[in-house]
Amino acid sequence: MKKLRVGIVGLGRLGKVHARNIAFKLPNAELTAACSIVPAELEYAKTELGVTDVYTDYREMLAKADIDAVVIVTTSSEHCWQIEAALDAGKHVFSEKPLGVDVAQCKQAEAAVERHPDRTFMLGFMRRYDKSYAYAKEKIDQGAIGTPYLVKATGIDPEALVEGAIRFAKTSGGIFLDMAIHDIDLCRWFLGSEATEVYALGATFKHPEFKEAGDDETAIAMYKFANGAMAMVHVGRTAPYGYHVETEIVGTEGTIRISAVPEKNLATVYGPNGVCTECVGSFPERFDEAYLIEMEEFVDCALNGKQPGVSVYDGTKSTAIGYATTEAWKTGKIVKIG
Amino acid sequence: MKKLRVGIVGLGRLGKVHARNIAFKLPNAELTAACSIVPAELEYAKTELGVTDVYTDYREMLAKADIDAVVIVTTSSEHCWQIEAALDAGKHVFSEKPLGVDVAQCKQAEAAVERHPDRTFMLGFMRRYDKSYAYAKEKIDQGAIGTPYLVKATGIDPEALVEGAIRFAKTSGGIFLDMAIHDIDLCRWFLGSEATEVYALGATFKHPEFKEAGDDETAIAMYKFANGAMAMVHVGRTAPYGYHVETEIVGTEGTIRISAVPEKNLATVYGPNGVCTECVGSFPERFDEAYLIEMEEFVDCALNGKQPGVSVYDGTKSTAIGYATTEAWKTGKIVKIG
Amino acid sequence: MKKLRVGIVGLGRLGKVHARNIAFKLPNAELTAACSIVPAELEYAKTELGVTDVYTDYREMLAKADIDAVVIVTTSSEHCWQIEAALDAGKHVFSEKPLGVDVAQCKQAEAAVERHPDRTFMLGFMRRYDKSYAYAKEKIDQGAIGTPYLVKATGIDPEALVEGAIRFAKTSGGIFLDMAIHDIDLCRWFLGSEATEVYALGATFKHPEFKEAGDDETAIAMYKFANGAMAMVHVGRTAPYGYHVETEIVGTEGTIRISAVPEKNLATVYGPNGVCTECVGSFPERFDEAYLIEMEEFVDCALNGKQPGVSVYDGTKSTAIGYATTEAWKTGKIVKIG
Amino acid sequence: MKKLRVGIVGLGRLGKVHARNIAFKLPNAELTAACSIVPAELEYAKTELGVTDVYTDYREMLAKADIDAVVIVTTSSEHCWQIEAALDAGKHVFSEKPLGVDVAQCKQAEAAVERHPDRTFMLGFMRRYDKSYAYAKEKIDQGAIGTPYLVKATGIDPEALVEGAIRFAKTSGGIFLDMAIHDIDLCRWFLGSEATEVYALGATFKHPEFKEAGDDETAIAMYKFANGAMAMVHVGRTAPYGYHVETEIVGTEGTIRISAVPEKNLATVYGPNGVCTECVGSFPERFDEAYLIEMEEFVDCALNGKQPGVSVYDGTKSTAIGYATTEAWKTGKIVKIG
User: I need a labelling partner for B315 at 20 to 30 A (CA). Which of A74, B131, C44, D48 fits?
Assistant: First the structure.
């Protein structure tokens, strides 16, 4: 059995998730190298992942390591040049979202991808690989709801983790770039069309620190799409009940809704508070399986010369929409896209 | 528009529900007389219901009042003779459940009903008139679940009202006669067959007062039916979340379940306890509308010379099964039913 | 017991609902007069409601009928002058929504209400009296979700009734005035603030007749409120599953969602299509009980010299917002409100 | 990192699940040997699992293979002697349920386990490792529902797979031994007590082939436990909607219910049939993750000299109860349990 040899760059929280999946849960992949500027992360690679070939310099890993592919889980601003360098070094590339922090960067990554059509490139829009989302897409493609024409997307981080969000409020790029990229990608994916116009609002009622940092703790946006479809997006950072990702796709013959109750599991407690379902606590918990499935897809594509469903252009488009949404939110005006 | 003139006997909690429905909510009925041995109840009839023709003696009401029909909401042990007396006086009769406290009494009521085939007689199995139960029956009759062959019924009173249950534990006849009559009736109704055998158990883990009074706070029973179908019944008195009536009918082609979440209304709270639905607090709240609908049915039948879906025999049968269940529970043996 | 004598004007589908409630279901009200320009409706009043004092001329009813109050269920364009005439004739007034078809009319009604502070005036925003909505408001007022700052409202008529909507598409005033008035009222009610800005979009993917009539079959709008809160409204006319009214109120400490599943009743069918809940088929079915409760409130207020929670100003404000939304939808621009 | 070297015996449907988990998804285990009497299964081991050390003789694998542990996924009647042989050969042992096909066999396995207290032994009651069941147990141990005193367990195989069940009806040991072992184990686990008495019934309304084979397609049982608690079990083979495992634990302070809707995923479809959730199709789909988690537990215990939560005695007890239930079902009598 042929195995894909993978080098990972970045071993923070999400990097560790990917690394363990590659190292232990994919029969046809092995984690053979790791790169990080954080010593503790390289130590983790050695002791927990059994990876001895470690680097502090990304270009050195590309040059020396015995790898077929690179998995990039670094700071957003590093993604594009790292993608380009890896592709130019002949590696398949998986990069975490967002593709880049501005559209110019994204275009540079697009060019690199186009230069290497025989290399697999995949962007980490893992929600598309979540079983419920994949099921919804399959049902929609089968015609179960007729023509989809409205997406209503909700993504709210838990209040339990709000301190971290406050700490990064000044540098996050604002709530839409920070939080709505996945929702924007889902809207495009389900509607099969591109957003052409956006209007957005924000509000801060609980943690004034967001407002002070020029950000908001909750924000909503409305989109017009090229084919006449529409979308509504609601993102927030203060759900007292957990991590809440919900998406509804309305079509001419029906509607599919995913995760109206962001249930932790299948247990329900009948007690003094009524009938209660505990909620999932964080995105790694919610999308645990999706992270594995997307990596299976990447490895399968890289080994078999295929391209996955999520392309580099999905990265550019979602980034462009994220910027337009941010502009609409900041200016209070309708912003035309593209 | 012809109106049915009704006299009510018994104006306790449930009596008041029926009285208000007759007095104010049924276009073709009027409450023209009331009888009670409790002075405050007659005072209520006068001031709240506007009924001036009141009695302390039931036979006197039958003899003198300007009434076409009698609604009996007295203590269970009085039902049968009051039914007989009313029918013999030429009145239509609605009686609360149970029909009687033993089968001999029930047979006496059956004889009275048979003597007066032109009079309407109805027993207050109001669950059959609840919209959800009526919907389930209609679906089943249309074949939606094929042949029904198993009923799983649950009825649990709220812990909030347990003090009353403890107070009456010695005289209630035991948990099955006190609480399972409706469930037994539903099993018979949905399965279209009669129980032939029962096994039963009880338990008391929270309020030893029940055990001390020879009763139990929770009990379960299993029934074999003449047509080969089966039933499981679970009754209890200590639900911390409210009043819980749930019924499931399993058929060859599907299952219908009613009220797995005994929701108070359509609101759901997403908060620190997860996603919670508050529960209904008591049987009058849960079956509020069913009490009205069953009385509409009674009035319609009485005015138009019809007999309702619930017959006197349903009363006898359910009482007989209740007694057999009680015997099984008390003796720990399988009991054959009549 | 004092009874409020009521005359009704308009006995169409909703008029009949109100009429029956007044005639048969409210102990302290009686329907003593009826007015309609449709002969069949007056015939209905006589034969079904037992009202013999009928009129074809509204002013004649005001002048001659033995009534304390008027219930107005006529065409929207007639509401304001009929309100004014009734108040000036010394009657209490209940009017169906909307208050009027333009703000100028509404102001005229406001003036009439202000001229007669001792008369009860109530507008038929019945959703506020629905048990689930009333429960949500009570919970919110008790602080259950902290400060509410975002309302997400959905109202979709059933595809089964779309023919009627198509027939009236040219004269309905457009989807927002026709369908969003209740949602707009709920946003204001739950947020305790006034909308200051709106952006809106529409789409027609199923029935081109709407587009041809200058209308849309689905539309969405986003609102900014004076206190910084926000709202998203989604209205439509083609739900294949039934009548869907859903509302979510997001607050700093929690969220309340009403009717995510627009269930017909408490029964669930486990069958070849999975686990299914049938949906409610129409607004009269969904809000059956709310229509009765709001009328109880009106009668109670009129008899006891009180004003209900829904004021004439709620009518003007919601109408103004409805117009602003319509302008935003028609022009594609952000519209400032009052 | 130390890895547990595992040999598997039996590579049927469930054997393949375990084999893939050991081979590819557990960082600290490796599948180094495989044994089967079916040539195609050994071919699968070589080509799909990369296991070259294969055997047709179980004792030969024990003697020669480089293994620390054995995973037994053979026919039920082989389990006990294979357990004994492996333990006596110094191996850790994981065996699929049931422990044995009669109590005498189970006792023999118990003796072997007791002879080798330094070897890890685990029985495959994987439901205990399902996240929802584990969550329920943890909540119960924390006191969330007070003292548990009633378990209501349901397990129904899908109609879609009924042909297989019919084929094996004569040799399955009957519906209770075939299907209720997991439910019986869960009752014991949640109640923390042993069953002392059972009554059972069966029914066949859809596929007479079961009755002809001396079996039933649906069966129910009621249990009394030593501590006064109770249980109700319902097993079946013809759910038209999929694979349905549901468990409810009733306690003095609340109830936990697991999987009232056996949902396939988090998507809900709003369409012509109402609001529908598709159901999970089979036990491997439902318990996919639990099979991995239980094997993680086994490997962790074996590597670290621990014993898992599921002991050999759980196997004997559940088998004894299964036999008593079968006797009750066959004889129609109450059966006392050891």
Answer: B131
